[in-house]
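Ops channel
N.P.: pipeline sanity check, posting one input/output pair.
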């Protein structure tokens, strides 16, 4: 005869059943979003074999949900169908050199070495003989009004520089990557009309920076900063004296300010927290000479690891959102602004992304207010812990990985750079 189960022993089973019933009823009122990784796997099964563009679209889903391994997998699937697919190659940060596709940085290094071995110099859009460059340079100096040494023209950026050619080329390629990343990220959200390439004036010293900005810019900050986008003359100014990696980050950050101004049509009403956080969102997404929105790269000069490890306490969101451009200069505020933008675009399964973009679009006709933001997106008291959670769950692990695995631009160019 089997022993009878006591009521006490049976209680865990009853409690578990009641818990499942409770969860089932609760689920009717609030649906739990499906796991992004599960969604990826289900969608990938449906795409096999699929077309290359289908895999590109799936890679976009991965980017929005921070599934970086799966994004690369989807892009590689696209290339297995069409090895020359330019968009897939660009999203992987690759450029064609000769007959082979390589990371942009490697392709640039190879190109410079090859062409210099032939005795050629680069100017504008092509390699040419030194005497040809002198003719173009002389004419362009008169037009620009200052004695730069190098000029590089790409679809999204036009660089005039007294830095070394190698660093000028790196800055141009990174600016181009930032422009392409911005364009692709917002092409379905904002009306992206034709925009001429942004002018970037690049110099090696703070003295040259101060002199140039006073000479050219209408709204100069003098030598107090190492880079800024001037709204008056629509030129981005940058100085590399504080460090080349830092300068590259500044160029990407200011490039985003420029694109916000020239493309989005909401720039005059953008709040300072979004402008600075948005610039850092793309800046921290750079790896090598590629820019991947949402990804996290930490260069050697970044204060991010120290701030995230608890060396400084960030202020609250309400404090941040009340700041103006002149009062948001603290590194902790930049970090919080970046964290907020990253959370709005990727946190909680991306639930705030469309709401945020829709609200930002309304700033074409009105100024930002915290009340309007809370009504359209989320209450700050609710959002505050979510941003903190996002930092801990997404950013800290990414920072650790970035510090171990990232290849820094200046490291790669150390043997090539000529002062």
């Amino acid at each position: 005869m089997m022993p009878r189960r006591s009521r006490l022993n049976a209680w865990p089973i009853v409690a578990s059943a009641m818990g499942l019933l409770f969860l089932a009823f609760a689920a009717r009122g609030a649906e739990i979003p499906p796991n992004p990784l599960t969604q990826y796997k289900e969608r990938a099964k449906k795409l096999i074999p699929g077309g290359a563009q289908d895999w590109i679209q799936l890679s976009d889903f991965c980017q929005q949900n921070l599934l970086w391994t799966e994004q690369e997998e989807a892009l590689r699937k696209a290339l297995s169908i069409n090895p020359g697919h330019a968009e897939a190659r660009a999203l992987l940060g690759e450029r064609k050199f000769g007959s082979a596709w390589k990371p942009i940085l490697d392709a640039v290094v190879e190109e410079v070495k090859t062409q210099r071995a032939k005795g050629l110099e680069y100017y504008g859009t092509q390699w040419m003989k030194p005497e040809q460059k002198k003719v173009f340079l002389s004419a362009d100096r008169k037009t620009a009004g200052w004695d730069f040494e190098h000029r590089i023209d790409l679809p999204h950026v036009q660089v005039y520089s007294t830095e070394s050619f190698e660093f000028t080329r790196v800055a141009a390629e990174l600016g181009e990557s930032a422009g392409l990343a911005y364009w692709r990220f917002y092409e379905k959200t904002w009306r992206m009309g034709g925009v001429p390439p942004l002018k970037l004036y690049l110099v090696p010293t703070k003295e040259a920076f101060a002199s140039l900005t006073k000479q050219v810019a209408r709204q100069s900050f003098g030598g107090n900063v190492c880079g800024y986008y001037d709204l008056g003359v629509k030129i981005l100014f940058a100085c590399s004296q504080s460090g080349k990696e830092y300068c590259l980050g500044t160029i990407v950050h200011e490039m985003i300010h420029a694109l916000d101004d020239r493309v989005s049509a909401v720039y005059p009403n953008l709040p300072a927290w979004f402008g600075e956080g948005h610039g850092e969102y793309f800046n921290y997404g750079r790896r090598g000479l590629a820019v991947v929105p949402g990804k996290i790269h930490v260069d050697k000069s970044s204060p991010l690891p120290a701030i995230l490890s608890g060396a400084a306490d960030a202020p609250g969101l309400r404090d941040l959102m009340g700041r103006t451009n002149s009062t948001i200069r603290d590194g902790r505020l930049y970090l919080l602004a970046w964290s907020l933008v990253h959370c709005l675009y990727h946190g909680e399964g991306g639930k705030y992304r469309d709401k945020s973009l829709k609200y930002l679009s309304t700033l074409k006709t009105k100024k930002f207010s915290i009340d309007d933001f809370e009504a359209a997106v989320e209450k700050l008291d609710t959002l505050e812990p979510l941003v903190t959670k996002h930092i801990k769950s997404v950013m800290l692990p990414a920072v650790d990985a970035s510090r171990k695995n990232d290849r820094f631009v200046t490291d790669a160019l150390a043997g090539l750079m000529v002062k």
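N.P.: looks fine end to end. The mean pLDDT is 81.
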